[in-house]
Design brief:
Layout (H helix, E strand, L loop, with lengths): L3 H16 L8 H14 L3 H14 L4 H20 L28 H10 L7 H10 L9 H6 L6 H11 L8 H6 L7 H13 L6 H13 L2 H9 L8 H7 L5 H14 L2 H11 L4 H10 L3 H16 L8 H17 L6 H12 L5 H5 L2 H18 L2 H13 L4 H11 L2 H8 L13 H18 E4 L2 E4 L2 H7 L3 H8 L3 H7 L7 H11 L3 H13 L4 H14 L10 H8 L3 H17 L3 H21 L1
Antiparallel strand pairs: 1-2
Helix pairs in contact: 1-4, 2-3, 3-4, 6-8, 8-10, 10-12, 11-12, 12-14, 13-14, 14-15, 14-16, 15-16, 16-18, 17-18, 19-21, 21-22, 21-23, 22-23, 23-25, 25-28, 27-28, 28-30, 29-30, 31-33, 33-34
Length: 612
Amino acid sequence: MSTTLLQELQGELRRLYIAGSDLAAEDFRLKKLEPKLAQLGERAPVFKRMAEDVAALTGPSEPEARAAKLQDVSLLLNSVLSTQGRTAAEGVTEEKPESAGLAELTASHSYRQLAEVQNALSTSGGGRYEIVTSAYQQGLFRDLRLFPFAVKALNDSYSELADYAVRYILPSYGRAIVPYLLEGLNMQGGREEERRLEVVRRLGVDPDDKRSLERLVAAAEEGADKVRAAAIACLGSHPDFEERLLEWSLDKKKSVREGALAALAVRDSSAARDRLYEAFTGKDAVPAAEAIGAAPSADMIARLVPLYEERLRREHAGEDDRKSKDKLWKELEPFTIAFRHAKHPELERLFLDMAASEQDYPSLGRLDFSEHLRVMNQAAGYLEDADTDEALAVLQALEERDPLYLQFAFHATKRLRPASELYDRYAGTGRGRLREAVSKKAQQIQKKLIETLREEVYAYEGYVRKRLPRERVEAEWDRRWLGWLIDRNELELVAAMAVPGEPKLLPYLEQQIERSSNNYYADYIFTALDQGGFDEDTKYELLMRWMERKDWKKTYSVYRDESELLLRIPDRLAGSAADRLEPLAKEARTEYVKETMQEIVHSLRRRAESAN
């Protein structure tokens, strides 16, 4: 596609920015460009949208709307130009067929919707991560105008945001962006270039895209060390480069060898597996293990399991000193890395036997506590996911020997057994009958059980932790858990498990309100009230008690969740609430709290008056 037309439009828009958007009305130069853009729009929707925006810019409109439309057209144009590589010189045609897939993206969102995201990816400071992740989840990055900002995120000063762009945002555009990423690659660059290449590795390069493959090979041969390694890692799916990968895997530079080993694990040919095994049993054990762990193949795992078993069963005849322990862990650790995502019948067999007969594996007994736990946790985690009765029986026996493994047996039991059986095993037996665990082991078991319950009933959405929906709680959990948790004063879990019909719940929540006005507990208390199915009058009375229990002379803020609860009070109770809150506002120590409370009181009074 020629960029000449787009450059001409860019010049006209620049003129209007200087002269004023009002002059765009009936502007003959812009109107001359509109049909040409519409013609391009027959092949790519983004140009159809651009033609429509130019028509709206030159048509009848209010001044503010015309100024906003000028911003929209400019942003869309700049985004399209940025996907075409460097702007071509006047009159020179620059073909970029590789980026054609980007033209299928929309340009349907308003500038206001996009502005916050653009600002978040163009500045620094707190709160930006949440803005960007929320925008991605809402699909805003499907708008072409955000694509340049998504690429810009690769160099963001906040590494977690940059990594999010690598893992989620940029891969969502598909393979069409690979040529663009490679054209803009600085071969002597740093972390940003590594991230670019990580996206390329995730998406893969079209075997017919010779230009991109040439760029990769050039980066692999001429780039800075880390850029070389990242570029080499992208070549694993291309058989023509296998010999080069084998050569690079012997390079004197460690980073280059790491990239080659990562690519060979993807290659998974006989020669690639031989080289990986050689590296795994030599000086590059950990890099080879990481490569295998990222792309485990059945043949490679089958080759490593016997070696792992032999090392675990090996007897130690010499002195068991620090040096020998460190040497043993250096031999075993690569297996834990290589097997972290692996699934194989032989691996399952080994883990079943290890968990059931640990004494038959002398090397395990020589490991330090943390290293031993790492090995056994991997075995238990594998068996938890096996979803077989045999694995469940082994996990339950392992749990009986050591409560540290309770979580694995608990999760497996929950998946394979009825909800009532899960409760009976963990809370309805001697293990959970007493309100207070007495012995040290019983305390350890109860603590581990509560930690495990917390993992099950709360799920993370990004960085926000939320309880399971009530429907799932009622369908998946025995109702007796709620009473058990109330007896143990586990407010956080009571809020997660709260369902209608538990007689202990309301007295417990009333007690919590009397004991504390700490805002940390408010969300749990009022979540439990909502989920417990109580009527509006009950929830209103407890909310008022909560507010009245606060020491307003020491309160520096009215929290947002408290404000939201107060403003959701039913209209018929709004007047009563205002009467009870007004004296509290007068006691407040700071003007900010007084003003906030007074605004809430006024809002409640207006609603009460309108209801009457």
